[in-house]
Specification:
Elements (H helix, E strand, L loop, with lengths): L6 H22 L2 H4 L5 H13 L4 H12 L8 H22 L3 E2 L2 E2 L1 H11 L5 H27 L2 H4 L5 H29 L9 H28 L7 H27 L2 H4 L5 H4 L5 H9 L2 H10 L6 H13 L2 H14 L1 E3 L2 E3 L13 H13 L5
Antiparallel strand pairs: 1-2, 3-4
Helix pairs in contact: 1-4, 1-5, 1-18, 3-7, 4-5, 4-10, 4-18, 5-7, 5-10, 6-7, 9-10, 10-11, 11-17, 14-16, 14-17, 15-16
Length: 378
């Protein structure tokens, strides 16, 4: 089993990730960017989640992969900032789709501006709710366009990177990866309306990878290509880091689904149990449903995707725990990191894909990152 980071390792990891995170935030908050975002409601919405914090693990893995192949991590900062902003627009739109009102200990974008329209502008409740959705959709559009067309080209304009590489990354992010992300989002909504018995572990894992692993895969690939200043994605280092990040992304989402059920709401910054209320077909829910008795299944079906009380949610959480849904999912997440059997297949773990890389501080940090994502508590 993957061991949690020691106290000293965690301090080192947090320090390094914190420094990278600060560089990304500093890049995004440059006045040349802020000055062209208007009106106020859009500008504040675009920066809302960035200002609320977040772990910024995606830009971190991109820069670490750049360093792991011998590249200058400072030259990767525009790409890291672009990835953070790209991820952020998916969160803004995902919160609208899921009708979530809390994110990172604050209001979601659409909830924030619905309140503003109601309390500051004095609009009636229906119009205020609609305005919140309008601002959320448009802010996400701006974030997506800015990340791809406004930031990624700066790899060349500011850092002198191979222009063919930059074009390749733009195509990879906003065409290849985008289509996979949308595919996963649609499947997530569709699966929430299907009876759990009509789904399989393989289908759920595939959906999770599309929603989360695909963007991580881009980060691994992009970081390596930037570090090598090469558009050739067939190079062994690029392929290895792309697969490493991809598998870590799957493990990350599995751990996220665990925390969404049994995590600490104050640490998470969003309501625990929201996935159950939305009818999300996560692995913990699916595994417990398979093992549950008839009455337990009926309760899980009644609660899933419905407006229910906290007490009812608590009962379903207990069913999931009792039928080892949490334990099973954690073992599965660990397997994606260190290898082992998944279903009837033997899976190579993410860590094995680092074997081709030379020893370095960046490789060590990537190993720590892989251990961190499946032992984290928020």
């Amino acid at each position: 089993m993957v061991e949690p980071l020691t106290v000293s390792e965690l301090e080192l990891f947090n320090k390094e990730i914190g420094q990278l995170s600060s560089k990304v935030k500093e890049y995004l908050y440059q006045e040349r960017f802020r000055s062209v975002l208007s009106p106020r409601d859009i500008r504040e919405s675009v920066y809302h989640y960035v200002g609320l914090g977040g772990k910024r693990l995606r830009p971190a893995i991109l820069t670490l992969c750049c360093g792991a192949v011998g590249g200058d991590v400072n030259k990767a900062i525009p790409a890291a900032a672009a990835v953070e902003l790209y991820h952020t627009w998916t969160l803004v739109h995902d919160d609208i789709i899921d009708r979530d009102e809390k994110r990172r200990h604050g209001d979601t974008v659409h909830a924030k501006w619905a309140k503003t329209a109601l309390n500051e502008y004095g609009w009636h409740s229906d119009l205020s709710r609609h305005y919140g959705l309008v601002i959320g959709i448009l802010a996400g559009d701006v974030q997506k366009g800015w990340s791809v067309a406004g930031i990624l080209p700066n790899l060349h304009f500011e850092g002198g990177m191979n222009p063919t590489l930059v074009l390749k990354l733009i195509q990879e992010l906003d065409y290849v990866t985008l289509l996979v992300l949308v595919d996963g989002e649609v499947l997530d909504v569709q699966y929430s309306q299907l009876p759990p018995e009509k789904l399989s572990e393989e289908k759920i894992i595939d959906m999770l990878w599309k929603k989360t692993g695909a963007l991580y895969r881009f980060c691994g690939k992009a970081g390596a290509m930037i570090g090598l200043n090469s558009p050739d994605e067939r190079r062994p280092e690029v392929a290895s880091l792309a697969e490493f990040a991809s598998r870590c992304g799957t493990a990350f989402q599995l751990q996220d689904d665990i925390l969404g059920i049994v995590g600490n709401e104050k640490q998470l910054g969003k309501p625990v149990g929201s996935d159950l209320r939305e009818g999300k077909r996560t692995i913990p829910f699916w595994k417990a449903y398979r093992e549950a008795g008839r009455k337990e299944k009926q309760l899980m079906e009644r609660v899933s995707g419905k407006r229910v009380t906290s007490k009812q949610i608590e009962k379903v959480v207990n069913i999931i725990v009792e039928h080892e849904g949490i334990e099973y999912t954690h073992r599965l997440a660990t397997t994606w990191v260190e290898g082992g059997r998944v279903g009837s297949s033997e899976v190579a773990g993410a860590l094995s894909y680092l074997d081709r890389l030379p020893e370095s501080n960046y490789k060590t940090l990537l190993e720590m990152w892989a251990r961190f994502i499946i032992t984290r508590t928020n």
